Amino acid sequence: MTTTASLSIVGSDVDMLESPALLIDLDVVDRNVATMRSLVAGTGVEVRTHFKSLKCGGLADYLAQRGCERFMAAKLCEADVLADAGIRDIVIANQIVGKPKIARLLELAERTHVMVCVDSLANIEDLMNAACEARVLLGVLVELDVGQGRCGAATPDEALALALRVLDSPGLEFVGLQCYDGQNQHVADAAKRRAGCMAALARIAETRRLLESKGITPQIVSTAGTGTCDLAASGDGVNEIQPGSYVLMDSHYREIAPAFGCALSVLTTVISRRGDEFCVLDAGYKAISKDYELGVLKVESLGRVVNMSEEHTKVESPAASLGVGTQVEVIPSHCCGTVNLHRRAFAVRRGRVEAEWPIEASGRYD
User: Fold this and answer.
1) Are 270 and 221 part of one and the same domain?
2) Is residue 30 situated within a structural domain?
3) What's the pLDDT tens digit per position in 205-246?
4) Which CATH number does the domain housing residue 16 bear?
5) Among 11, 87, 145, 171, which residue's CB has the most CB atoms within a 10 Å radius?
6) Whether residues 232 and 341 fall in one domain
């Protein structure tokens, strides 16, 4: 998925890139994938990588070639990119509502295996009618609220009622339960994060037992993210986890999940310097998300990020090595938000550009 314009860049040293540029260190990605694989080894739990963190078809293809073939998307546009990248096992972790989007969903279902979440009888009926008209069998997961207070069935009984309705709907196939515990992912205190995850797992187990008591066996029971994947992998009744940030990581998440390394960075250039007080980089929060906090320099000994504006990052740095024209990498505090700010990523390995990938789903919310 290398573009024609980038052919002269591929194989070049990273310092030949114009900044700001989004970099993905493939060696770190490989280690993160291996770490996640070892985390679930022997548990019977599968990993479904969440694409909302990645948004890049080239990266999805890279992961699939290394055994990561199950993906989750937040939006239809992301599912489209995954299908174009050859992915054939996709869950959309959202409710697809309204005739135009349901029509797009069914078009997608004709070319790949896609599943979608529901939490209302009205949506189930709309999906059923459209699937029957299109003569498509659509996989459906009932979303269960396990403490986030966002979408999903509020109780196990409500989840059961939705599952029964799906089972009674021609054109739809009940696949299982989607149970994301988003409220736990960024809890810094390990004990509190564990307690929150255990509460979510208890709700999942209760709901699964209720369904099975009625003769309903979910094929998929999916939960967790990067922050709770280690806990949920051993959860009762869970057979799938759905982390996404683990692939790229960021300075915020590595404090919570230190087993994974930061593969994502933004290459910047020092454009101004004031003595030994500070220097200024040519990228601000339009290129480096500061959703959680300011980013950090990849080599932290070079200086400390103290301020970000739209196009500038100010770094307190006594290091003479950060002179005007010097390139320096910044690790963002939020990988998902940063990827969404860029239209292309450079896959690098040991300081050389291995590929240029378009980020097809960045800046799209459909």
Assistant:
1) no
2) no
3) 999 999 999 999 999 999 999 999 999 998 788 999 999 999
4) 2.40.37.20
5) 87
6) no
